[in-house]
């Protein structure tokens, strides 16, 4: 286990978790449509994505509810001098129940003595609540960028939050 929060465990994705992780991606149809022009991804895409993330030093993690042991989300991040939070995604059935905020706060606590800042790139023509979520969690817009995800160029903002070391 990498870290835990009051209600969740966060740990590395293993092959046995692929079906659950695939279900999480596919439950977020609006995300897939906006980011990839797809309504669904398959297991080959997921295997490729996780392997590519691993090659560049990122951790692909599952988020499990402590009480039900259901996989409720996923988290991808890399750590160097700063943490690059690539993805925090909650299964559509579990959204608006506090998992995203709780897991983010847990990640921040985990990172607090390891990195000086957290970076996230947020697509701006997707869901306005996503940008609002990160601002409420202390992130500031630093730059407007183009983000290439799965071969698609997306308008985005680079956001950062500085941690106290």
TrEMBL record:
Keywords, sorted A to Z: Transferase
PROSITE patterns in the cross-refs: GNAT (PS51186)
Keyword flag Transferase: yes
Gene3D superfamilies assigned to the protein according to its UniProt record, in alphabetical order: 3.40.630.30
One Gene Ontology term of the molecular function aspect: acyltransferase activity, transferring groups other than amino-acyl groups
Pfam family, one: Acetyltransf_1
Chain segments annotated as coiled-coil in the UniProt record: none
Occurrences of domain N-acetyltransferase (ranges): 11-164
Protein name: Acetyltransferase (GNAT) domain-containing protein
Protein's organism: Tepidibacter formicigenes DSM 15518
Upper lineage: Bacteria, Bacillati, Bacillota, Clostridia, Peptostreptococcales
